[in-house]
Specification:
With 182 residues, this protein is α+β, with helices and mostly antiparallel strands. It contains four helices and nine strands. The protein folds into two domains: 33 residues; 144 residues, no CATH class. The strands form two sheets. A six-stranded mixed beta sheet has the order 1-2-6-9-5-3.
Length: 182
């Protein structure tokens, strides 16, 4: 009988070790699942259905707001066959509230300062968060994306997509001449 108890004890320990291993694998899978896809705004415009509901990381610019535009610096702009008006929103501004929180680090504070600065300001940043898509523009027509049945996002539903912000990085801003207005 002693031999049977020892076998049961060993089997119990092995089962516990397997369970612990499975739990640690599951937590690693969860961490990998939240990694964001680094894409361009043109990628979002052309194939929003691939990224809808997923965490993305995209570089974009705006003037005194969180409505993203393609970046136009010293290089020739890349022509994109589609277009979307995209707004960045905070997690507490959407329902249902996402399962992540906004990271309020130095980059976020720098973004907030730029948004609340005097006069028009050009803001370029990398935005990371959940992408929600309603429409895209192709060949001059507004085309519904996926199963979304709403009229768009933001004030007066004027935006075709939104990024529910989890993190912002690489923020830079500079004042524009006042003729640009807000």
């Amino acid at each position: 009988m002693k031999h049977g108890r020892k076998d049961t004890h060993i089997l119990g320990r092995m089962a516990s070790a397997c369970l612990l291993l499975l739990c640690s694998c599951a937590s690693c899978y969860g961490q990998h699942a939240t990694n964001s896809a680094e894409i361009t705004l043109c990628d979002l415009y052309q194939r929003p259905e691939l990224y809808a509901g997923k965490t993305i990381k995209v570089r974009g610019g705006s003037v005194s707001s969180l409505a993203l535009e393609n970046l136009l610096h010293d290089s020739q702009p890349v022509t994109c066959s589609a277009y979307m008006r995209i707004v960045v929103v905070l997690p507490d501004e959407v329902k249902p509230v996402p399962d992540f929180q906004l990271i309020r680090d130095d980059s976020y504070r720098k973004l907030q300062e730029a948004l609340h600065g005097p006069g028009p300001i050009r803001i370029d940043a990398t935005y990371e968060g959940r992408f929600d898509a309603a429409f895209t523009w192709r060949n001059g027509k507004r085309v519904r994306v996926g199963q979304y049945d709403g009229e768009g996002f933001g004030n007066k539903r004027q935006y075709d997509g939104r990024i529910v912000l989890q993190r912002v990085s690489d923020v830079w801003s500079y004042p524009l001449p006042h003729r640009f207005g807000r």
